[in-house]
Write a structure and sequence with these properties.
Rossmann fold; Alpha-Beta Plaits; RCK_C; 4 domains; alpha/beta; globular; about 450 residues
């Protein structure tokens, strides 16, 4: 597949690194020579130092034969213009990074399609949804709902109170059991488990279950004593904070701590509601946090623009008794460190945005792809077409590649777990888990 990426910044650089490892033909365009130089020597890709909205540049990059054109510079107008030009010159699919949530409204979708833009990516909106989902369950590291929650994936850190440690999964996750363990993060390793694998203390285990059995999973992992989140303290008042607050339930009371006085005034205008209080202060001031009631707060979210500050702030909140902490960590290199500190949920906008863009590379009907933060595993929703390989035999006879498992499916609006005897049907929404960037090997089962 031929892919052009415009913008060697956070998301573009991350995508270029991922896709170049996957043997794709990558061309990276940027107006900043230094940005390109950092990537040129280490990765197998072509770089062009030029304006992405220059017609000569696009022709030089052979945009007419491009399968996927990705514009992710910090300038949304440049991204939209570049995608429109790329489409006009023959690019098959285009995706533009934006900063205006108004563009995402359903009534505007057709407008952008007419402009030649296949998909819009607003990283702050995507991250905000992850944060809001995480706050709904104080005992969960990551949560992913399929079809409005009829099927749910839960990433959970296992502590001493977990009652299913050190037992083969074949004895725990049979055809009649209400959950499957679909991935395990253990230290630096990610395991797509088989029947003989066991859950160990301090693993992060990823469970697939249905909505009705979430309380059961909570019980067996020993998290019933975790209180539900009703009070949230957020450090940093950027766009992601605004979108997260607009997504969380009304029963949660929120305090935002923001250093910039002018931004505080803006937040008070944007968030004109009764359950949000904006405080003009420095969230690194421990005495201030105490005065504002952090010891009685169920969740602390650090979303400044500095990863180190966010990690340290969450560590401080943990020491002060906050059970649920969330840190925005935009530097990929810091994610393993943050995970080793056991700070809780880690949000990385680059990885979230890259997940949504990556699904456009696949030929199969894929509704969602997610790179699980801090793991080397992916999860995706595939919809098989009539006659596809995955519909011809029961799951146990499909010959699925090593490092892949099917966790569940949605059929006629109902979620159900998958066992070896399950017969997948065309039109099902099938949840697939695999080792990092293995989706291209799996899609052949669904087309």
């Amino acid at each position: 597949m031929k892919i052009i990426i415009v913008g060697a910044y956070a998301i573009g650089t991350h995508l270029a690194k991922l896709l170049s490892r996957n043997n794709q033909e990558i061309t990276l365009i940027d107006e900043n020579e230094e940005n390109l130089e950092r990537l040129r020597s280490d990765f197998d890709l072509l770089t062009i130092h030029a304006s992405p909205t220059c017609i000569r540049t696009l022709k030089e990059a052979r945009v007419s034969s491009t399968d996927l054109f990705i514009a992710v510079t910090p300038n949304e107008y440049q991204n939209i213009t570049a995608c429109s030009l790329a489409h006009a010159f023959g690019a098959k699919k285009t995706v533009a990074r934006i900063d205006n949530c108004e563009y995402l409204r359903p009534e505007n979708e057709e407008v952008f399609k007419q402009m030649g833009i296949s998909s819009l990516i607003y990283p702050e909106e995507l991250a905000a949804k992850d944060i809001a989902n995480g706050l709904k369950m104080s005992w969960v590291r990551q949560r992913w709902d399929v079809h409005n929650g009829v099927l749910v994936m839960l990433g959970i850190k296992l502590r001493e109170s977990c009652e299913i440690l050190n037992q083969p999964l074949k004895d725990l996750c049979g055809p009649d059991d209400p959950y499957h363990v679909v991935a395990i993060k253990r230290g630096q390793d990610t395991i797509i488990p088989g029947g003989n694998d066991e859950l160990k203390l301090y693993d992060v285990a990823y469970f697939m279950t249905t909505r009705n059995y979430i309380p059961y999973v909570r019980k067996i992992v020993g998290k019933e004593h975790y209180v539900d989140v009703k009070n949230v303290m957020i450090m940093g008042g950027g766009n992601t904070t605004v979108r997260a607050i607009q997504s969380i339930p009304d029963y949660m009371e929120v305090k935002i701590i923001e250093r910039d006085e002018h931004r505080c005034e803006q937040l008070n205008e944007i968030l004109d509601d009764s359950h949000t209080l904006v405080i003009n202060a420095d969230g690194r001031d421990v005495s201030l946090l105490v005065d504002e009631g952090i010891r009685n707060t169920q969740a602390f979210v650090a979303m400044t623009g500095n990863a180190e500050t966010n990690i340290l702030a969450c560590l401080t909140a943990k020491r002060m008794g906050v059970r649920k902490t969330v840190a925005m960590v935009d530097n990929i290199d810091y994610i393993d460190m943050a995970e080793s500190f056991d700070i809780g949920t880690i949000i990385n906008k680059k990885a979230i945005a890259a997940s949504h863009i990556y699904q456009m590379m696949l030929d199969a009907n894929v509704h969602n792809v997610r790179f699980l933060t801090a793991t080397n595993a992916d999860v995706a929703e595939f919809i098989p077409v009539p006659g596809s390989k995955v519909t011809r035999k029961p799951v146990k006879d499909l010959g699925l590649p090593a490092g892949m498992t099917i966790g569940g499916l949605v059929r006629n609006g109902e979620g159900q777990l998958v066992s070896g005897n399950t017969q997948i049907e065309a039109g099902d929404t099938v949840m697939v888990f695999c080792n990092n960037l293995g989706m291209t090997k799996i899609e052949k089962f669904f087309i």
